[in-house]
Amino acid sequence: MKMMHSSRLPPQGPETAKGARMTMKSERAILQDLNPEQREAAQYFDGPLLILAGAGSGKTRVLTYRIALLTGPEGVDPGRILAITFTNKAAEEMKGRIHRLVGPRAGAIWISTFHSACSRILRQEAERLGYRRGFVIYDDDDQLRMVNRIIRDMDLDTKRYPPRLVRSLIENAKNEMVDADTYRKRIRDDLTEVVAGVYKNYQEQLFRNNAMDFDDLLLNTIAVLELFPMVLEHYQERFSYINVDEYQDTNPAQYRLVKLLSERHRNLCVVGDDDQGIYSWRGADLRNILEFEKDYPDAKVVRLERNYRSTRVILEAANHVVSLIAGRKEKRLWTEREEGEQIRYFFANSGNDETAFVALEINQLMESGGYGHRDFAVFYRTNAQSRPFEEMLLRFGIPYKIVGGFKFYERKEVKDALAYLKFLLNRDDAVGLRRIINEPKRGIGEVTLAHADAFARSQGIGMWEALQRAEEVPNLGPSACRKLAGFVELVEGLSSEIEKLPLPDLLQVVLERSGYLDALAREGTFEAEGRAENLQELKNAMVEFNSSNPGEGLEAFLERVSLVAEIDLYDEEEGAVTLMTLHNAKGLEYPVVFIVGMEDGVFPHLRCMGSTESMEEERRLFYVGVTRARDLLYLSGAAYRSQYGNLKMSPESRFMRDIPRQYLQVIKADEPAVVGERKEGVRQGELDVLAASFSVGERVIHDKWGEGTITALSRSRSGPEVTINFPGLGEKLLLLEYAPIKKAGGA
Ligand code: ATP
Ligand code: MG
Q: pLDDT tens digits for 355-399?
């Protein structure tokens, strides 16, 4: 494969002030690095300024250069500038760049995320709200523990009101600046009534503990500014120049904060792209950017149309994707970069073929020279998709890192599940025991465990034996005894299945009987859904293990997993391939990008296919993904994936239809590598007869998906196909040969 990347820009890795060469730039030199529109924006210091422009047009660069110019020799005091980025990583990068442009003066500029800026302000001001010196910040886990305790203290059932769900409802309320009292007025049902109670309690306890959660950082900053005019004035003076990147993804609280701080001087520069709004599910509101001109009628608006990032092919494809979104502000990006290579599209027969393809392409590009591992990124829709790629990359010896998430075998639910399995084999594993004994919650608390532990010590026995003899443990009430006995019974029951069941089934039984899956289902949050997906993915890992290691059992599987989990091929020099979700990819760029799992139901995600709004957000997410690529873009998917031992068939992602054919180089898949079990006795001729008996518009019943309507009949090399629209699931393309369907109504 011939590569063409003469115009590659240096990799945009994290640059810190320390490592950077000190080449302070003169104002003239800085301006030379910008095109006329960018220059105009970078030099517009006074009054509201909106830079609304597409991906890769240099928005972040303008913001960075603008700050450098502001602080120039005759410029403003750097201490009066505030810059807000979306992630800490982005803040670090911006700091490094500005440092290189202006030198040590950059140190006084506040460049951070909303959360860090607020926590810095509150370190000074929180006492005014009644907090004591040195408040602490509660992270997700602390929050959850607290919510959990409150629910139980209120004598409510944590099964009926899952703590994670309650927490996420509280978070949503906070994002929209709805406080506990206001929330109470909006009670709609049983659940919101409980949430209102927990919310109030939760805030009181946080306050008593001199603690804030992440949302409080924003809300308390707003509160202190609104309640104390002197404080407001102080910070308005202090931050006379405010700059916000990725403004399209601000939520109402962030919007309010920006508004307050900038009210006095009105030197507010916001930068963003409404086509890249992908966080509405977390409370972000596109209106913040779309209505900026309404908020500030005198705002200067700058549009940037030249893209510097991507080849023409990639850019044209992206333009096309985004043009399909209704009611957007029309923008059209152009580039002077070369046409570049076509987007490579590979729709594999199996998931395994897809991962192998990605690894092989990376190796080939590395060999052809010019690329390092750090130049590659693999983006997927949901975290669970990382697992097969992680394993394939390890098999190829390709170092990788996961940004904004954990590696598959480091994820909590995966570790929990493995801890159960390990414990079934080894009852002396006290650490594992601690991990699983109250996970999911079964009311076995610290106190019970402390009693059991003391008993174990006094008898010179292990913890497990102490649990088996719970009746003898001093100070244990009957209820605690019962719970321990229940747990012992669970473990023993599960152990007796080890020999009987194949690995994936064993895991399923563990997850079911332990109540783990139920607990996730009850939570019903996006996060819980992701955790459940990861557990299903663990089952897939077992299926794969079984087929490549016939005859091996649980022990061998666990051993292999612990090896995988420990390998770390990371090499500073070469860097590593980056794996991340599409959501995390915002603002970044890579020479070579793979977007994997291009299948309907995966991307776009099944959950989002039901409404126009969420489909639009999915399409914006696709746009974000495509526009991360500089030189080469790969799209890939797989027709069949093994899912818990069965084969799942998916049609190609409908997003593939959004990319004009001339930009695609379709890489042919070989004959099906994996196929399902053939229907007994069905031969090709009979299949054709069967196919002919169906017609478009006819209703059929699928074993798993229920009733649907045939929307198309087609034929591929593998035989006759049928496309069926299932209500709520969308369209599925199935090979007639394997499709478990029959005619509805028994006709
Ligand atoms: P996104 O919407 O993805 O956040 P962006 O609009 O913030 O993109 P940048 O990341 O600032 O775009 O710029 C994209 C790339 O183009 C970067 O590598 C940047 O250095 C480069 N670039 C931007 N403007 C210029 C310019 N005038 N000359 C040369 N390179 C430029
Ligand atoms: Mg940017």
A: 989 998 998 898 887 899 999 999 999 988 999 999 888 878 888
- Contact (CB, 8 A) for 499 and 531: no
Q: In the prediction, which pLDDT does 22 show?
A: 44
From the CA of 307, give the closest atom in ligand 1. 16
Question: What is the CATH number assigned to the segment(s) 411-470+481-494+503-557?
Answer: 1.10.486.10
Closest CA to 732 of 714, 710, 699: 710
Assess contact for 53 and 131: CB atoms under 8 A: no
C-alpha–C-alpha distance, residues 57 and 241, integer Å: 23
- Is any ligand 1 atom within 6 A of the Cβ of residue 720? no
Q: Exactly one of 171, 213, 215, 245 is catalytic; name it.
A: 245
Please report how the helices 612-626 and 312-323 are oriented relative to each other, as an axis angle in degrees rounded to 10. Answer: 170
CATH architecture assigned to 682-746 = Beta Barrel (2.40)
pTM for the full predicted model: 0.75
Domain 313-399+575-667 sits in CATH at 3.40.50.300
Query: Does CATH place domain 139-197 in 1.20.1270?
Result: no
* CA–centroid distance, residue 547 to ligand 2 (Å): 45
Chain centroid to Cα 194, Å, comes to 29
- CA distances to 150, 202, 626 from 205, rounded to whole Å, are 9, 5, 45
Give the atom of ligand 1 at the shortest distance from the alpha carbon of 588. Answer: 3
CA distance 133 to 529: 39
Write the Ramachandran bin of 134: left for phi over 0, alpha for psi from -120 to 50, otherwise beta: left
Distance between terminal CA atoms of the chain?
A: 54
55 C-beta closer than 6 A to ligand 1: yes
Does residue 58's CB lie within 6 angstroms of at least one atom of ligand 1?
A: yes
What digits encode the pLDDT tens for the residues 436-470? 999 998 989 889 999 999 999 999 998 999 999 99
- Asked about 120 being catalytic, the answer comes back as no
Q: Is-catalytic flag, 60?
A: yes
Alpha carbons 232 and 434: distance in angstroms, whole number: 49
Environment class of residue 681 by beta-carbon count within 10 Å: exposed (0-12), middle (13-18) or buried (19+)?
Answer: exposed
